[in-house]
Amino acid sequence: MTAVSDQLVASNVQIARRSSHHTSDRVFRWASYGSALLVLVVLAGILGSMIYGGWPAFSEFGFGFLTSSVWNVGRDQYGAWVAIAGTLTSALIALVIGVPISIGIAIFLTQLCPSWLRRPVSTTIELLAAVPSIIYGMWGLFVFAPLFAQFVQIPVSNLVEGLPFFGTVLYARVPSGVGVLTAGIILAIMIIPFIASITRDILDQIPTMLRESAYGVGCTTWEVVRYVLLPQAGVSIIGAIMLGLGRALGETMAVTFVIGNANRLSLSLFDPGSTIASRIANEFNEASGLHLNALLALGCILFLVTFTVLALARFLISRVKVH
Amino acid sequence: MDATPHQVSAAAAPAWGRVRRSRQTADRALKVISTVFTLLGIAVLGWILVMLIVEGTRGLSLAVFTETTPGPGTEGGGIANAIVGSLVLTFLGIVVATPIGVLAGTYLAEYGRGSKLASMIRFVNDILLAAPSILIGLFVYTLMVQPMGGYSGWAGGVALAIIAIPVIVRTTEDMLRIVPGSLREAGAALGAPMSKVIIQISWRAARSGMVTGILLATARIAGETAPLLFTALNNNFWFSPDLMGGVSNLPVTIYQFALAPYENWRELAWAGALIITVSILALSVVARLLFRKEQAR
């Protein structure tokens, strides 16, 4: 393929020189080249604007910006730790809940589902990704959170009260339904379609012969999945999970609705918290001066973290495709 | 070992015979759990849709489509300005994104095939595809809103375009890649220059897939809220034709109204949520069906 198109490019240069289309051909070539470069420029621009905008905050607070948990607009003191902790915790919860469900869905779609049902079910799961994030926020806040408070937070809090560790981590002082755990659950639902559809594609790429051989020697579906499919697909499934993680880290509107936007650090998963994205969404429009710089610095941290995670994801997913 | 044949029901398709019980249990568990998880995913989508229909239809009336958003404490009102504003912003975004995305995808699939630069751009594009949209809002804020001295529909359109471009680049490239090389060679053999070959042969062969990509990008940006918060913002009036100074739009209106203390605001937020979700889901389904039909031909 590549050799052919290289030849094509080479032969075309000669043809184009002679033809009357010379100029338009060249314009078209440069236009597509320029558009492609624009993609690079946008990424560089995002990074540049975050660093430029966040620099005053970084230089004012130094390394302490990352570790300080003080965020006081009145005194102009800013530290990112509460938001970073909230971001990591909620994303981690999303993975713990979302990954098994996503892999289960992918296994259902590729191994168990009758072929006539496959497409509708696939599409339905993919449509979960098309629902706007703000709708998840409304669902989470108005429908899920009250139920969660009533049927999970209150019973669990009563159960664990006074116990060491669990009495702290799973105790709700105000069982309102919103909090870090609720945000994690909503995030889990939001990342499921991404992880599930990539995992499905990966499982589909594994040669049928491997699967059939395993069934041929008498493996059960569980054994085929566990000892044939998962080892084959392992690394790229981790890539798919990383992609989900990247999504969960930067998700904004849904989290802003359900995390409670509290400014203090709490050890309980039932307590409200905040993430980098939710804090930016909440405070940006009223911010000025150093406050604005601090928010942009938060954006810079979020950019660097998601960039790393997504780059790793892309690397892991593409690695197996080569095989 | 102790699984005797009469214990195995007819529904368990493979005859279990003398298969060890633990293997059978593991297998059953996998099947049941995967099915339950899939049903769970479908149920959540259904639950969200039911919620939207129940809550949204309550606030739905003709006024929703004809009147502007009400001020604080004002009775009645609609979201007509927000709906039109959203259409304008989405249109603006897609009009900017389509040529750039299609050309960039063309570069990756046709000109840059195998080059280092192309694989780097592909890598960056994949990252932008999943990058948090709020960061794109911040970027456009520092790029356009600060220098221009205020929120504007133009900034909102650019932010949406930046979100749409990676989607279009990716689908365009994928679709052009499945166009057989022999078609291009045939065009080149007739003496057509590269641009002609691409426009009249490659693009034409990949057209339905490329249109699907553009429709999916439209669906993606139509519901984006976070990037609009810092760029187009929102207001309660009909926006001025020059799109300066805040353009009302559906997602930000929903965000502001859903959490408001006024009953009519909340009803309008639900109505808006229903309208936007149904439009986006319909667009996504249509895009998929369109593509499938074209492929089937």
Features:
heterodimer; A: 323 residues; mainly alpha; MetI-like fold; two-stranded antiparallel ribbon; B: 297 residues; globular
- CATH architect. name of the largest domain in chain A: Orthogonal Bundle
CA distance, first residue to last residue of chain B: 53 Å
CATH topology of the largest domain in chain A: MetI-like fold
CATH superfamily of chain B: MetI-like
Count of spatially separate domains of chain B: 1
What's the helix-strand series of chain B? HHHHHHHHHHHH
Q: Regarding CATH, which class of the largest domain in chain A?
A: Mainly Alpha
The averaged pLDDT of chain B comes out at: 87
Shape of chain A: globular
Residue fraction in strands of chain A: under 5%
What name does the CATH topology of chain B carry?
A: MetI-like fold
Number of separate helices of chain B = 12
Question: Quick recap of the structure?
Answer:
The complex is a heterodimer of chains A (323) and B (297). With 323 residues, chain A is mainly alpha-helical.
